[in-house]
Every structure is written in C-alpha cells, then in structure tokens.
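Support reply, case 0932

Customer input (verbatim):
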Amino acid sequence: MDYFSRVVACDADSRLDGGLNPLQCASLAYWVVGNAEEARARLKEARDMLESRPQSDFSAWRYLQMPSREFRKDLDAMESMFDGAQFFPRFWLFFRRYAP
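Our regenerated output:
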C-alpha cells in the first residue's frame, strides 16, 4: 500500500499528468488507500477524456497499449471492482495462469 500512497501524494501535490494512464493509475491508487470519492473522480475524468478525445493509451489494468474502446472497458471493470465485484486486473490473471 505504500506505493499507492506515494501515487496519491504525487497526485495531491501537483496533480499527475492528465493523460488517460495517469488518471487510471491515480484512480486505482486512491481506491486502494480508501478514498473512493477521489478514485471515482479520476475515473470520471478518464471517461470524459475518452469521450472528448478518443485515443489509445497504456492501460494499467491489462498492462498493454489499448485502443479507446478497450480502454473504456478497463475503466468499466475498475468501476465494478470499486463497487465490490470480485475483479482482478487482467494482467494478474495472465501471470497467475503462467506462474510456476
């Protein structure tokens, strides 16, 4: 959790770069440290950015470069996790499948 607290501190001090990936990472970090309100605010900012300027970006949820349609699905999955659904980031499932 210490790393997530660092991300939150950086965002609080100088607001992370407003790209999709930084907003997504800030959203996840706020959720992990228990600040659901800020987590949802960053998620909304990312969604708003996708609506106004559809673009591909690196998704922390899959740990891959994703087109805007797939990035939006990742944001939806994050929101479901915030709401209590048993979701894991997609890249974790990949590593669990191939872990020794």
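We compared this against your earlier run and they match. Two observations from our side: The radius of gyration is 13 Å. The first strand starts at residue 57 and ends at 59. Please reopen the case if you see a mismatch on your end.
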